[in-house]
Amino acid sequence: MARRSVPVLKQLLSNSPILNQTRSVTYMPRPGDGAPRAVTLIPGDGIGPLVTGAVEQVMEAMHAPIYFERYDVHGDMKRVPEEVMDSIRKNKVCLKGGLATPMGGGVNSLNMQLRKELDLYASLVNCFNLPGLPTRHENVDIVVIRENTEGEYSGLEHEVVPGVVESLKVITKFCSERIAQYAFEYAYLNNRKKVTAVHKANIMKLADGLFLESCREVATKYPGIQYNEIIVDNCCMQLVSKPEQFDVMVTPNLYGNLVANTAAGIAGGTGVMPGGNVGADHAIFEQGASAGNVGNDKLLEQKKANPVALLLSSAMMLRHLQFPSFADRLENAVEQVIKEGKYRTRDLGGQSTTQEVVDAVLAALD
Predict the structure, then answer these.
(1) Is residue 5 part of a domain?
(2) At which of 267, 300, 332 does a domain end?
(3) How many separate domains does the chain show?
(4) What start and end residues bound the annotated signal peptide (predicted)?
(5) Best label site of 214, 234, 328, 330, fewest CB within 10 Å?
(6) Strand order, beta sheet including 226-231
(7) Given this model, what pLDDT does residue 13 score?
């Protein structure tokens, strides 16, 4: 009888809450780290107020230690108001909805103004498979790190003679080295194994050649991280055929925009990809890949914009502010809602409204 009771005893002990109790490991905060932080909020255009409103609801429900300073900024303004710039400089962190940039007409992009004036030189987009969301490829987890201040986005254009426009692509060693340094540092701190530099140095031998030279120099300082290079057109082909081969990708400005949107489409769409822009002193978090749905009047009218990308971006923001437990709670809740599949917006194959997705996330918060 005693021998027969041993398995029963083991089972009882294994189910004991005392023996199974575990405590998560977190960072040791300094005194005062829990004080609420001010974050500049720019709702933006189109669906921007709808998805930033979703973030506000979730932050309030979690009692996250942040509060928002809201400013109305729109893409058709000539420039970002100075009071908004002052707020971002003071708070050092901003959450932003999409800003519509008029096509042509000589109107400057406010997104570019923010990045240049605050020197947000690194754009980061994380493209990964969400459990429960079917895609053509599995095991996709790509981080695209894009130089954010020069290249084809330098804005140096002029009309030489009527009918002939010259646009200058500017690449500097300083900006190339610091984006390469950021990419390798990111890989090192996040236990990533490989950094791939994307280029077109076979044609733009001086400009992209300088970018590659800078990446190679920085790579020698990180012998534990694999480094390779790929031409941008081959990169796009490889992305759609075998995306799981990529880990961290570092790119000049224009290529990064194209690569990030391609990777986002592969991993589930722009509506679920988080991202941000960061410099030495400031950071702006927003939807990771193209916000081309900003001006979708039908989405706005039906209130069916997907809030997932900005919710995940706000989790990145919380981690940036050193509130990791709040970031974990938010990410876990979003992933649970996606995995269950009951509440999804149209771009993910469902018919839910923005508010229905938000309500599901609120219910999933532990």
Answers:
(1) no
(2) 267
(3) 2
(4) none
(5) 234
(6) 66-70, 37-42, 93-96, 283-287, 274-278, 122-128, 141-147, 248-251, 194-199, 226-231
(7) 42
How far, in Å, CA of 159 to CA of 41, rounded?
37
User: Are 350 and 310 members of one domain?
Assistant: yes
Nearest to 267 by CA among 128, 134, 143: 128
Which residues face 141 on adjacent strands? 128
Task: Confirm if 316 and 127 have CB atoms less than 8 A apart.
Answer: no
Domain boundary among the residues 205, 235, 267 is at: 267
DSSP output for 119-137: T--EEEEEEEPPTT---S-
Per-block mean pLDDT, blocks of 10 residues, the chain (366 long): 39 44 67 92 91 96 96 88 96 93 68 92 94 91 95 85 92 97 97 97 95 97 97 96 96 94 91 94 90 62 87 96 94 95 91 94 92
Contact of 272 with 338, CB cutoff 8 Å: yes
The rounded Cα 353 to chain-centroid distance in angstroms is 23
Distance CA 75, CA 170 (A): 25
Task: Report the alpha-carbon distance of residue 353 to residue 339 in Å, rounded.
Answer: 17
Asked whether residue 318 is domain-assigned, the answer is: yes
Residues 6+ apart with CB under 8 A from 348: 133, 268, 269, 271, 272, 306, 308, 338
The CATH number assigned to the domain holding 177 equals 3.40.718.10
